[in-house]
Amino acid sequence: MRWATGVRLGSIAGIDIVADPSLLIIFLLILFTLGTAVFPAWHPQWSMGLCWVTAAGAALLFFASVLAHELAHAMVGRAQGVEVTRITLFMFGGVAQTQSEPPSWRAELCVAAVGPLTSLALGVAFLVLAELAASPLHLNARNPQAALAALGPLSTLLLWLGPINIVLGLFNLVPGFPLDGGRILRAVMWGMSGDLHLATRWASLAGQAFAWLLMSAGLLMMLGFEMPLLGGGLVNGLWLAFIGWYLNNAALLSYRQLLLRESLEHVPVRKLMLARFVRIDPGMPVRTLIEDTVMTEGQRAFPVVAEGRLVGLVSLSDLQRCTPDQRQNASVGDIMTPAARLATAGPDDPALEALAILGRRNLGQIPVVQNGTLVGLVRREDILKWLSMHAQIPGGAKP
Predict the structure, then answer these.
(1) Strand pairing class (15-19; 84-90)
(2) Domains (range + CATH), the chain
């Protein structure tokens, strides 16, 4: 799945760590719930400040746990020949973005299983640490509130993190794609059938079935019904329905992405690139480009070429940012994006790779360059047009 926006937090072992904007929503929700409801209920004697500080620590360590879950996928994936370029943390956890499918069902099984196992191991470790920090922890079934109230901030934080990581691990084991349990199911079915396409299709259907179950349960809870293990209530029902809706979309998208990958993996860029287009000189005045070229051509970006070699690119957004003075007096070379800063593709690169670059950088087109010489433009619209004619992707291609 692709998340168009995000804030890069850094990198670990060469893997970019990106925070999606939706992460802030769930962080604030966890912080508010723990700081105003859970920890004050556990510790009526605590000050509001101590509750909030402990809640902030718990929320940060929870997302560190989610990151550890995804890093486990990434590290085992690398060992199995699956390159992971980025991990995105978002509202419902995290996703490790891969460049390719696992090479075998055994590799898929290993990569999928290690995430939930990591969460379960973290959950047990946090509970053990909570026991040690509480010196020792004695929960009295007749009066658990008294035992909780006696805990310090560290043991309270660890005691919350333990069960939440165990729940995270168990939830991810649900056999519905794209959850880890769904990937484990896909690996087993792939091993039995020898057909990755069929295995993905059935695992995706299992994911959609589970999603519809969640949405149905959420709707019943909103209507006032009490659900076993889930309880009831409007807010809980809304959240459950929302999670179901998200999982249903994710299951559909994951299957479409496999079909898209299969359709484009062996198609070279030269087959889809635009070979006839307008090239411009870096010395061309900006006003000439606007008046004589932009309005008469269907391009949204114009490669800047000097002696046959690509030196930059000017897009409509570059022209829109020009000041009145630049429009009258500047040359194309003054406002262009230099070639060194451009994403490019080679004519023999897979079209799938070009589409990934377009999506990752939110671009409409990229130059096709061979040995420094501009040979074409590959546009998102041309790739999608080819897919609409040649690929059988349910609901259309949505890279």
Answers:
(1) parallel
(2) 1-173 (no CATH), 175-264 (no CATH), 269-390 (3.10.580.10)
